[in-house]
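user: At home tonight, take the chain set out below, taking as long as you need, and be ready to discuss the fold:
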Amino acid sequence: MPRELLLLRHAKSDWDSDAPSDLERPLAKRGRRDAPRIGEWLYREGLVPDLVLSSPAERARKTALKVCKGLDYDKRAIRWEAAIYEANLEHLLQVLAAYTQAPASVLLVGHNPGLESLLRYLADGDLDEPKDGKLLPTAALARLEMPDDWRALEPGCALLLTLLRPKALK
């Protein structure tokens, strides 16, 4: 059975908050609404990941917690990976390479532009670019069929199975 990678951009954050730093920026009302919807959709589709990796940034952390609640996934099992915060393509590939013996299904919760770069790299040529130019808007989820070995992922090595935007769940 092939491995799967679920890429989830954090839900909508609150740019008007009084957060002292970008790392501490919270979710906006829309983000608090969309994140559980993604978790519930994953659960209904039988896509409960074996492993959840998340950026520790507040907006990603809250997204991961709300999604995991909808999945009935133990929040204590989430792995908070500092390397995901502000990661570019190279850093995200390094994060994935560290999980060479990872379970069959991994959910990675992170940020743009890194996640979009990773998605474009993995599904090279297999993407229909949206008219608005936003491949992964907030709380968007990409489901990829991946090769078994994640140590040296090549461009186009994955097959995009699903690209879900939260608007589709209303």
Observations:
- The helical segments are 29-44, 58-71, 89-97, 114-122.
